[in-house]
Amino acid sequence: MPMKLICTVKFVPDPDSLTAGPNRLILNPDDACALAFALAVKSGDPGVTVEAVTLGPLSVRPHMEDLLRLAVDRGTLIWDPGLEDSDAFVTSKVLSRYIAGRPCDCVLTGSYSLDGGSAQVPVQIAESLGLDQMPGVIRIDPDRFDPTRAVFQAVDETGVTTWEMAMPGVLSLTRESGYKLPYPALTDLRRDVSEDVNILTSRDLGFSADQVGRASSLTRVAGSSPVTYGEKDPKIVGTDDDGITQVVDFLKKKGVCR
Amino acid sequence: MKQTCIFQDTETPEKTTDLLAAAVRMYGRDGFESHVVLVNASPETFTGRFHHVIQVAEGLVADNDPRAITEILETLHQTHRFDSILIPGTTLGKMIAPRLAWRLKTGLATGVTDITVRDGRIEITRPAGSGTILETILPEGPGPVMMTIRTHAFEHPPEETVPTRISQYSRPVTTRSTLTRLGVEQNIIESRDIRDSEVLVAGGGGAARCFPALKPLADALNGAVAASRKLVDQGIARRHIQVGQSGKTVSPKVYLALGIHGSMQHLAGLRGAVSIIAVNTSLHAPICRLSDMVVQGDACEFIEKLMDKMMCNPHKNT
Fold first, then answer.
1. Predicted-complex ipTM score
2. Which residues of B touch A234 (CB under 8 A)?
3. Total domain count for chain B?
């Protein structure tokens, strides 16, 4: 039976953006890998359906339209002003309720987001839905990925482990997986999908105003400051014999080279 | 008296004790009772360091089952009403903490690197924005303060021992994971943890073409090989040796940064490095500003020449 796959995605400020003012948004790299894997499964079996869902401001709508041009079957954007300042707990709550209403065989997510990096939303979606979850997924065996089970490799502190997990479940991929989004076909590039993004509010999902946003969040970001590092006045040498000798002397002085 | 619960660091059990330093920051040295929860670990190491050692009965749960462990921690919280629950920022810890926070309906701060108390409120610091900023998080709501602690962020010095009460947890567990481990890449498991190495020979984009040459140099210096995210993304290096915001935080005595540009994300993992030698073709690379010595030149050429020099040295390393 063809699988139904849901990918949770997030659009984050591009850390490499050089423009002043509001940063350019990009699809979070780990999420892009998850979506790329889903689309690869679909390309091998046209019966597979892929949905991308995001919680974010309406400004990400054009990015969701771009995903529809990549053969994503359904793109859902959840947003209303009441969702502003939602913490990870509320984000998990909203996405879980949406996914619970759309039964699927596997939820594919990124492991980390570049902006927050808290990595808790995929786990909490899994907990809410009563599913298993694995972060750090670098490869999913396409021949052993079906509505009953998935066999995949994941990295942790010690190395790479091959796991089997019952489906439905939540698999969280990393950039190390190397799955790449396809380029859209020329005809798709020109396709008008402006009316095709499914836009929902928290009220559509049955939440009241006090159940989302700042009012319902369990953590608050009180402030932030740029990271600073103690700058030094380094000794500069070259790769000539004198420079290499000075490096050896430095290493000896530090006691790591005798 | 505050009650704080610490879940065992399953990767590096001896690091578990360091999480006590986080509790000391919140409540002061004598302001709390500590509970450590152990799964498939011996209580001896923790006796005298924690007030309560709770040992999960042998065979009750697998030590890699986040759902079963979450259930145990939830049950223990219902009994002890912890004021805070601290979980190591390991892969397993990151799989447990959000589940537990969800069940307890409490907030979770992840990857915590610092804690302060201001006007009686606990302020939690964690890196965000790809390591470029430090966020201050305030826990809200009635639940216990929950956080995952970044490895090596805190150090708890050995001090006078405390009386320890050991108990066993043996209540049946109803939630279990379906995860089955099919295999492990042994060669990686046997490799050294870069967080424990006093010397790190780290490669970046400028060392991509000669990355295998880092290993003999690291061996000669009795160190380990590390890498920047760029090499991991390119598939040249494995993620478990990645330094930086999305990798590991390291604190070596000497960090040899070979062809590493020094993005903010990479530097976020280097805060504990004592001395840095950067080898880079550009003196304007951000890592140069933080270095004790900069070798201007090609990283691969440098490795070759340094190895030659060390081989010629009659007092070469053993």
1. 0.90
2. 278, 288-289, 291-294
3. 2
